[in-house]
Design a protein that fits this description.
By secondary structure, the protein is of the alpha+beta class. 33% of the residues lie in helices and 35% in strands. Strand 3 and strand 4 form a beta hairpin.
Length: 182
């Protein structure tokens, strides 16, 4: 899936940031993302309480990538190579649609990094062809993510409830569905 992205990595986003594969050396960056309660409240994932949990999560990501339906990419600082964010693309039922998700270290919020990274990736996906739209779901309380998606040209398409499994418990959450034609 999305071999055009794999073949282009690393992808320069700006002088300060680039996109690359996630690897085992990213455990601290993943831990900073998923141990942060402000981020955790917007993602359907157990909050990490140790770097070991983040190492296990990186192994899960590798397995998902190998299965062929997911691609996880790291947003990194150019100077330090530090992972500061993650972007995920997932193929669902409709083969012409990609679902996108992302998370960014709180220290970098409000700088337009996610928007720049997604714009760069969308350019490559469009050039490769094969997909006609992107899909994103956001919790209604995640106003900043909604603004980011709207800035990227996504349009609100509706609301739905989603049952998520977190810590072996089913949790129902409301989601906003955003779509973008490619």
């Amino acid at each position: 899936m999305l071999t055009i992205l794999h073949n282009q990595l690393p992808i320069k986003v700006s002088e300060q940031f680039f996109i690359r594969h996630i690897n085992s050396g990213d455990r601290e960056g993943i831990f900073q993302l998923y141990s942060n309660e402000k981020i955790a409240k917007y993602v359907a994932r157990k909050t990490h309480s140790s770097v070991e949990e983040s190492e296990e999560y990186i192994e899960i990501l590798k397995q998902r990538i190998e299965s062929g339906n997911d691609i996880y990419l790291g947003i990194c600082e150019a100077a330090s190579q530090k992972l500061i964010g993650i972007i995920r693309f997932l193929k669902k039922e409709d083969p012409s649609t990609l679902t996108i998700g992302y998370a960014l270290n709180e220290e970098y919020w409000g700088q337009g990094i996610v928007a720049a990274a997604i714009n760069k990736l969308v350019e490559l996906i469009k050039a490769a062809g094969g997909y006609s739209k992107l899909r994103a779901t956001v919790r209604p309380e995640n106003i900043n993510s909604q603004k980011c998606l709207e800035k990227l040209g996504f349009e609100l398409a509706g609301k739905f409830n989603k049952v998520e499994l977190v810590d072996s418990k089913e949790i129902e959450t409301e989601r906003l569905l955003y779509l973008k034609a490619l």
